[in-house]
């Protein structure tokens, strides 16, 4: 059955980070549970709900931001001790708020992820994992890429300590002591881990993971290898997954999977069969879901899903009916409890309005005095800049704790702004002078009232690199703006992958010179996305990439004094050659560059591009015919006399226009890539063929694959 859930907003704390809200165990079977939450003001707040009102249990003083909050206690006892990660310190509180632990770790960075199992404490900074037992250092591991989350399989079921790290390079790293046991390859960068069913399943080995590109999966972590159980793609193009919990909200005796995403979606997955879970219900909030828990919070006997949002709202989706019916024929009447709540909210609102007026007058007086000092209000921005594999575009998500007034986007490299369905802001473009100032894009997004989250999409051109800047102005007084910068890399449309097809015709670029491992790694970081900034351990490293727009690939292997780059796209090799030479020249390092060009690779790349080119040309032709066909339809009354292909264009006109609008300049980009491929092929032979480009464009308009390949061969 479909769950009937009503939204209840309980309380707002400060801005919250991922996984910083938990429900304390209930004292009785159907009794309400206390909520404990930590915010970025450093405050731990514990409260319960009585008669619909939040009643505080305890509240700590402000301090450094809280990055994680977990519950702990002795194994097989109620987990009711509260542990928070603040900077590099872990503090412990009882359920009454008394601090019993202040453990200063030996980590030099802030704690990013934390997990507690009995006396064992698992902590992760950006790249470092530490295991402590009774606050004594036990094990240490240096990860190859950033660690996003950590957990440990239940010791009482698997009889050994098995920590699992969720790492940014699309792998789960399974550890044994201080050693890597094995790696599990995932379809996307994992952002959150949870034990299946809250206990690891029957075997205790099952882990549910969520990725930053919105995929959800379950894998079984055995002693020797991982066994994938199921995986759900992100067909609806929803946000990345930030939090997961297991709870029986439907009351059918089987725990459902609760998922919170960074676009505000809360999802309930039901295990109807023993295999894959099925999405049963979803609910949209206006901001990202930082934490999610299932339990009984608002009223005895009524289960609910509690979510903590980015701006600090604690919102419940409760099974308790909101309205009570009087009798047949009578109007719905609000309960006395609800009327009292409305009355108290009105009083609170009036008091707040009076307080705001008083503070505003006070500010106006102080700002006009001779000793006035301008104070800039601080506000927090949660931003994410990620490459989407599906449409080879970058998503820029900006989330502010208060309403956004406008966002100005500026770029010093050519970018296409793409349409986003969820975006209700009004965009206006300003003309910009690209020559003296290298200013290629200037656009302003004016947001509607109460918009706290804005999503933009841009597509870059490989080979052109620079900076995208977003100037975020919220609706606060005095007017304040924050600037956020995002690097557009030379090979910006490449994405890390686990392996590549070695049978493709490959071009090779070889570098040799007096450079260190750290120097060549910094050049690769500059050129390609998703490469960890920290220099890898060991003497040599290999990374694999795939071009999200064309499907071509790149293999990058380097060590001190030498680097090898292989790609089936000669333009990728050309871009790398130019950029790496430039970077080495900046540091006054003499490079010996050699290359091996495979003639078959150009034909192979053209065959990869051609289906996309054909599709886009056909789409453009259809769109250009729509107005004329619609005019014919108006004049003639019906279109039965038209050929079936023209009738289908009229029937699909809205979808065709929508698709064309969503992908502006797509055809021009493909033309540009083929032109670059043509120029780069002959550049490696030492021939300048720019004069033949107009002839190439004529052939492209004809869309003949054989003719195009013949032109490349003959030129």
TrEMBL record:
Coiled-coil positions: 335-362
Domain BBS7 GAE span(s) in chain numbering: 377-486
Domain BBS7 beta-propeller as annotated: residue spans: 21-319
Highest taxon above the source species: Eukaryota
Protein name in UniProt: BBS7 protein
PANTHER family for the chain: BARDET-BIEDL SYNDROME 7 PROTEIN (PTHR16074)
Source organism: Hypocryptadius cinnamomeus
Keyword Coiled coil included in the entry's annotation: yes
Domain BBS7 helical hairpin: 599-712
GO CC terms: axoneme; BBSome; ciliary basal body; membrane; neuron projection
Designated gene of the protein: Bbs7
One GO biological process term: intracellular protein localization
Keywords assigned by UniProt, alphabetized: Coiled coil
Domain named BBS7 platform: residues: 494-596
SUPFAM superfamilies: WD40 repeat-like (SSF50978)
